[in-house]
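seq/struct pair 1
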Amino acid sequence: MRAYLERLEYRVRCYRFFFLPPLYLALAAFLPALRQYRFAWVAVTLALFALGANFFPAFQVHYIAAATCLCVLLSVTGLEWLGRLTIGGRPAGAEAARLVFFLCVAHFLLWYGLHVFDTGEISRAVQSYETWDNINHGNPERRIAVNRQLDQAPGDVLVFVRYAPRHLFQEEWVWNAADIDGARVVWARDLGPEENARLIAYYPARTPLLFEPDPRPMRLTPYQP
C-alpha cells in the first residue's frame, strides 16, 4: 500500500503535461460544473483512470494518453464557466477567459523559444523547471559523451547511476545488453551502500563507477561506498 501511494504521489505530476499553468484558473472554474452529473462523471473517470494505471509498477507517459480528451474537456469547460463570471452584477468572465487563453499562448511561445536554443546557457538553466513533457534533452549527445569516457576506462566496469531528487523519470540511463554478464559495461541504479555492495560482490572483476547525470556538467567518478 505504501509503495502504491508513493507511486501515485510521484505520477500525479504527469497530469501537469495536459494543463499549462494558466489553465489552473480554468480548473478552479470547473469545480462548480461538478454539480452536473455529466461533469462529475468526467472527474470520477479521471480519478479511476489515475488510480488504475498506478497499479502497474512500470510507467510510460503514453499510458495516460487516453485521458487527453477528458483533460481537454476539463479545460474547455472551465474556460466556459469562467466566461460566465460576474463581479458586482457586471460580466467579467469573458475578459478573464481571454486573458487565460493569451497567457497559455505566451507560455507555449516562451518554452518553444527556449527549445529553439536548447543548448544555450539560459535554456539549460531553466529546463529543470519545465512541466514534464517527455522531451529527451541533450540526447544522444550526452550518452555519446559518457560512452566516450567509459571507452577510456580499462577493463570491465560496473556503473551505478545516482539520480537527483528532481530527476525527470523520462531520462532513464540504465539500459543493458541482452547478455548482461558478458557486456563490458553494466549499468545499475544506485540503491544505497548495502544493495550496491551485493552487486559489487557479484561482479568482483569489474571496476565500480558512479555516474550522476543531473549535475551540470555530468559526473563520472570512481564509486565510493
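seq/struct pair 2
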Amino acid sequence: MAPMRVTNPGLLKQFDAFIDSIKPEDKVGLFFDDDPDGVCSGALVALALKRIHNKGTAITLCSSRLEYGVTDEHVKAFKKAGVTKVITCDNAIEEHADPVEKIAEFADVLELDNHAICGHFTKKNILMMKPQLYIANFDYSKYCTSKLVYDLFSRHCDLRDRDWVAVTGCISDISTEPWMDWIRSVFRKYKVKMQKDFFKTDLGKVGIYINDSISYNARYVHDAFDAVIEAHTPQEFLRSPIKKHHHAVETELQRWTKGIEKNGEWHRDLDVVFYHVKPKFRIKSALSTILGLKYPHWTIIISAPEKKSMTLSARRGDRKVAVNRLFQVALEGLPNAAGGGHIPAAGGGCRLKDFPLFKSRVIELLRSGFTGL
C-alpha cells in the first residue's frame, strides 16, 4: 500500500485559521459523542484549548444514544450560553444539518469526525474536518476522532503527555492497526504491558471504564469526561472514582454476550443474526463490539427498546457488508429514524412500531445480494 499522504493542505490551513481565530472574548462550546472515542476526543480538545488560548469551554454538551447528532435542544443550550465558536467531536453532525445550520447563525462551527460523509452544509462558517477530505491512501474509519484531534491540535500545542488518551480512543474504536509503532511507544512510556487483547491492558481498561460509566447512567458521561481531563496517566485514571460502576455493568455484559447463542435469531443462509436485548444498563454498543469480534463473518444486529424508540447497533468484522449503508437504506423514509457509522460498525434507531419493517427490509436487502460496498 502507498503511504498516507496529504492531498488537501488547504483544509489543514483552514483548521489552523479556525484555531488561531479564537479570541479572548470568544466563548467556545464543545459537543462530543457519548462513547469512549467521543469522550477522549472531547477531552483532548478541551485540554488543547486551555494550552493554546488559556481558555476553558463555556458549555460542554454530548450526544444522546436516543437521538443522534446535534438537536434543537443543543442549539438552545449553546445560544443561551452565548457561544461564538462550537467544536464537535466524533459525530457526523452533517447527517442532521438543520440544527447545525442554526448554530452557524450565531457561532462558527468546527466538526472533527472520522465517520462517512452523509450530508453537507450551506453555511460557509461550518468547517468539516474529516480525514478522507485531506488524506489519501488511508482507511478513514481507522483514523478515530481521538487520534485525529491529537494530531490536528498537536500542530498548535504539545499534547504528548496526553498521548495515552488518544491511544485509548484508538483501542475503543478498534482503530489500532495503522498506528501500531506509535501505540507500542506509548505503552512503553507508561510501562503498560502489551497483550493480544488490547481491552485487557490498562489503556484498554480506561476505555472500558468510560463506557461502563456511561452505560450505567447516561448522566455520568460528564464525570468520565472530567476524569480523563484530571488524570495525568492511565493508571491515575483507573484509580479514579469512575471505576465504581465497572463490575455491575461488566456482569450484565457477560450475561448478554453468552445469551446470543440461544436467543439470537440466526439466519444462516444470509449470515445475519438479530439479537433483541433488554439489559439493565445501556450496554448495546459494547455488546455489539464484543460480538462483532467474536463472530466476524456475521452481520450482527442488536436491538434494544428505550422509551418509545428501538435503538440499533450493527457489526460486520470481515467488512463484507457495509453495515452503515445497510442501516441507512433499511431506515430510509421511516419517521424519526436515522442510522450510520462505518463499514464494519454502525448505530441507529427507529420508532418501536417501525422495527418489524426495518427488520424485513434488512432481510430483503441481504437476500438480494446487497453489500453496500
